[in-house]
Specification:
111 residues, alpha+beta, Muramoyl-pentapeptide Carboxypeptidase, domain 2, four-stranded antiparallel β-sheet, 4 strands
Length: 111
Amino acid sequence: MKSEDIQAQYSAIHSLLRVAASSLILVDPSAVITDASRSDEDYYAMGLPVNEASLHFEQEDGFVHALDLRTNGRPEWRNRAVEMAFWALGFHSLRHVGTADHLHLSLRLPG
């Protein structure tokens, strides 16, 4: 976990995503979760507009459906392998830049 604050958010992550992230950390102990649960204030602090549809917000089931993994300072092959592994497990994976390059992982929404 990037910080104690992120560690405190871990239990808010949906259990399927939490199990997948835990499995990743067993295989790749250098993996770092940089973000999970967010509030409007978090977006303001990052200088980004609030995204009401963000899966980083608590969802109807009471859980956060997304987390971010650090990509900076990691070999590109490893970042791609992690992205493909989550994709193969049925998760949505997106590499993008908000405030920094990262891998956004989330549950796939039905429909």
